[in-house]
């Protein structure tokens, strides 16, 4: 039986601060047992996942929300790094991006992303998507132990 008392740790790798704030808001309002950690680019994301400075005291995430278009190291490189790393390869990765290009969707699944979401332009649609994501991934889905 899945233990609902356990708080999940979610890493959001997102350079758009407005989108990141919105994700945080929706998560908080949903009063969910999840801690949202936020980094702004792929270099920070990999340091967080590998618990390198300044993230050595951070918990290992149960789930990664990954934007594709980020500075320094983009989401594609992060996804490749994760899937090539024996310690991280099983981490569930949800791509959350502005792209709705079919080739990007195909490329993401070819690289073993667990889910591909296109960020809606309209605010209420974006909120609905984050709420659905939260309800599905944090309630229905059984995640691997971190």
UniProtKB/TrEMBL annotation:
<keyword id="KW-0597">Phosphoprotein</keyword>
<dbReference type="InterPro" id="IPR001789">
    <property type="entry name" value="Sig_transdc_resp-reg_receiver"/>
</dbReference>
<dbReference type="InterPro" id="IPR052893">
    <property type="entry name" value="TCS_response_regulator"/>
</dbReference>
<feature type="modified residue" description="4-aspartylphosphate">
    <location>
        <position position="67"/>
    </location>
</feature>
<feature type="domain" description="Response regulatory">
    <location>
        <begin position="9"/>
        <end position="134"/>
    </location>
</feature>
<dbReference type="GO" id="GO:0000160">
    <property type="term" value="P:phosphorelay signal transduction system"/>
</dbReference>
<dbReference type="InterPro" id="IPR011006">
    <property type="entry name" value="CheY-like_superfamily"/>
</dbReference>
<dbReference type="Pfam" id="PF00072">
    <property type="entry name" value="Response_reg"/>
</dbReference>
<protein>
    <submittedName>
        <fullName>Response regulator</fullName>
    </submittedName>
</protein>
């Amino acid at each position: 039986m899945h233990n609902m008392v356990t708080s999940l740790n979610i890493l959001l790798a997102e350079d758009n601060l407005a989108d990141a704030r919105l994700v945080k808001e929706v998560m908080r309002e949903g009063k969910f047992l999840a801690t949202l950690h936020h980094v702004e680019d792929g270099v920070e994301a990999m340091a967080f996942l590998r618990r390198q400075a300044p993230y050595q005291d951070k918990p290992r995430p149960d789930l990664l929300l990954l934007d594709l278009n980020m500075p320094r190291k983009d989401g594609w490189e992060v996804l490749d790094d994760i899937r090539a790393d024996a310690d991280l390869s099983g981490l569930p990765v949800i791509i959350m991006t502005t792209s709705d290009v079919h080739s990007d969707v195909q490329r993401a699944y070819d690289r073993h992303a667990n889910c591909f979401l296109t960020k809606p332009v309209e605010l209420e649609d974006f909120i609905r998507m984050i709420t659905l994501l939260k309800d599905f991934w944090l309630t229905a889905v059984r995640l691997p132990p971190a």
